[in-house]
Design a protein that fits this description.
two-stranded antiparallel ribbon, 59% helix, 116 residues, single chain, elongated, mainly alpha, 4 helices
């Protein structure tokens, strides 16, 4: 199964309560961190980015142990065999956002920090 297929079918996996599909929830967490970053709420942006990394990594790794259904045949299932470069790029996006948010938090003077 290619990465784009995993992404497209991830939401359906959530509807059918497939454990590895939990990793798909990293996407809305990442989108939220982007919104928070744009609003200059760097503390919450960093927190949601780190949450996206944990959920994405943990959910995807669970696909090594929990097989995913493959079509309508009940005897056919897919298991993850290795993590390809697309996975690491997908996970690097919230990591980069978290690093930038933390850097900006540390760089910002105390009297200019907005209450979050």
């Amino acid at each position: 199964m290619k990465g784009i297929e995993v992404t497209a079918w991830g939401i359906l996996g959530l509807l059918f309560l497939q454990i590895p599909a939990i990793g798909w929830l990293a996407n809305p967490a990442y989108w939220l961190s982007c919104i928070l970053f744009a609003r200059q709420k760097y503390k919450f942006s960093a927190i949601t980015s780190l949450t996206a990394i944990a959920v994405g990594y943990g959910g995807t790794l669970s696909a090594f142990w929990f097989k995913l259904p493959n079509g309508s045949n009940p005897d056919s299932a897919l298991a993850l065999k290795k993590l390809l470069v697309g996975f690491w790029i997908w996970l690097a996006a919230p990591a980069l956002l978290a690093l930038i948010s933390l850097f900006l938090l540390m760089k910002m003077p105390r009297h200019l920090k907005k209450p979050t």
